Amino acid sequence: ANENPYNWTISGNAITRLVEWKQSSFGVDWNNPAIAGDSVDYDKDGTANLIEYALGTNPTASNPSSQGTQSSTSGGKLNLTFNRVVANTDITIIVQAADDLSGTWTNIARSINGGVTTSLVAGVTVSETGTGSTRSVAVTDLYTTNDPSHPRRFIRISVGP
């Protein structure tokens, strides 16, 4: 398996915030792809290291997956709530939705380089609350849960450079 699916690079003496976070989180193993790789779930809590970085959760202490994200319905529509770390200016967080887990995923909201999360699709609503180092982000899908054209809906977070 590719331990670096996002092709992170370090050029010259520049150290990204992600590298600093890995060094702080994993100590001497920060550069060991079997432990600190972006797609590795070191603490076996169901959340890959890169997602833990994006959500501000601890990659070495098992937390229920719901600690970083929570799904619900709001106004009859699927809603995903998560925390976004403002200082993580080296990643893009994308919220995606689909009618089938193996189907085509559509990007419906995005935060680039620590910026405010914005809607990418008309009808998708996004709100951010909070101050300081994190923001609570809520993204609401455009389809209702009883829409006959979309009888099943799924929502997820994707993180990359």
Brief write-up:
This protein is mainly beta and 161 residues long.
Keywords for this entry:
161 residues, mainly beta, 4-stranded antiparallel β-sheet, 3 helices, 8 strands, globular, disordered N terminus
Describe this structure in words.
- This protein is mostly beta strands.
- 13% of the residues lie in helices and 34% in strands.
- The chain contains three helices and eight strands; from the N terminus they run H-H-H-E-E-E-E-E-E-E-E.
- The protein has helices at residues 17-26, 33-36, 49-55, and strands at residues 69-74, 77-85, 92-98, 106-112, 118-119, 125-129, 134-144, 154-160.
- A four-stranded antiparallel sheet has the order 1-2-7-6, covered by helices on one side. A four-stranded antiparallel sheet has the order 5-4-3-8.
- Strand 4 (106-112) and strand 5 form a beta hairpin.
- It starts with 16 loop residues before the first helix and ends with a strand.
List the helices and strands and how they pair.
Layout: H1 17-26, H2 33-36, H3 49-55, E1 69-74, E2 77-85, E3 92-98, E4 106-112, E5 118-119, E6 125-129, E7 134-144, E8 154-160
Antiparallel strand pairs: 1-2, 2-7, 3-4, 3-8, 4-5, 6-7
Provide the helix percentage. Answer: 10-25%
The total beta strand count reads: 8
| Tertiary shape | globular
- Low-confidence stretches are 1-14
Note the beta-strand portion.
25-35%
Order of helices and strands: HHHEEEEEEEE
User: How would you classify the quaternary structure?
Assistant: single chain
Structural class: mainly beta
Distance separating the two termini:
19 Å
Largest sheet: 4 strands, antiparallel
List the strand order in the largest sheet. 1-2-7-6
- Total of DSSP H or I helical runs spanning 4+ residues: 3
How confident overall, as mean pLDDT?
87
